[in-house]
Amino acid sequence: MNKDVIEVQVRAVLPLEGSFAVFLGNESKVFVIYIDESVGTAISMFMRGVSKERPLTHDLVGHLLMAFGAKVERVIINNINGSVFHARLIISAENELHTTRKMIELDARPSDSIAMAVQQSAPIFVAKKVWESVEDVSDTLAQIEKKGLEAQQASEAPKEEGDDDDDEVEELSDEDINTIAGISEGEDDDEYDDGFGDDDDEEGEEWKKADG
User: Fold this and answer.
1) Dihedral sign for Cα atoms in the order 162, 165, 171, 172
2) Do 19 and 37 form a contact (C-beta atoms < 8 A)?
3) Which of 71, 62, 69, 66 lies closest to 97 in space, CA to CA?
4) CA distances in angstroms from 212 to 85, 117, 170, 194, listed in the order given
């Protein structure tokens, strides 16, 4: 892989009101992409290894690739246009004799690409020009993780005699995530370009980018 791309990992997938925030990055930087709820749920399930009674869309695509001797080699988030990210899905496929493999590059939404990469344990890369244009939200993610850990530790701590349920600490809520991430109460996904609308006049903060 050349120096024009940077490898990243999915650092967190957090539910918001009607959408998900996917945090991507490495030790030096983290940025966020907002994706629709259905794909966010799929990515979260793949990361947690949740079994399903019936295959969902990304499971089906994965099974089709396997049936034809193909697999996801890597994902590249290669461009950003305004607030919309773009990605390329790199697939390798064998011929019928299983003697040679060819590479196929497909245009795809980052959300679907990330879901397929997580499902098949394929690496995710970001083009250097995209990497340099997005804002670093490492501190935001650290605050969210810290508050989530504190809530978990508090809920697991043994209760002293006389304590009641009113003293229990709740898990990190959507409102907590929104507050830490700087998302104002009442804000919705219409504030961010999801790739289907034409109105780009009301973009959010620079790091609040949408899935293409």
Assistant:
1) negative
2) yes
3) 69
4) 5, 16, 34, 6
How many whole angstroms separate alpha carbon 94 and alpha carbon 69? 6
Three-state DSSP class for residue 74: strand
Q: Is 130 exposed, middle or buried (0-12, 13-18, 19+ CB in 10 A)?
A: buried
- Other C-beta atoms closer than 10 Å to the C-beta of 162 total 6
Distances (CA, A) of 65 to 89, 94, 116: 13, 10, 11
Query: What pTM was estimated for this model as a whole?
Result: 0.71
Cα-to-chain-centroid distance, residue 200 = 23
Helix (H, G, I), strand (E, B) or coil at 26: coil
Helices (H), the chain: 37-48, 57-67, 110-119, 128-133, 138-156, 174-181
Residue of higher predicted confidence among 194 and 12: 12
100: CB partners within 8 A, 6+ apart: 94
Nearest Cα to 22, choosing from 6, 3, 5, 9? Answer: 9
Write out pLDDT tens, residues 133-160: 999 999 999 998 888 777 777 777 676 5
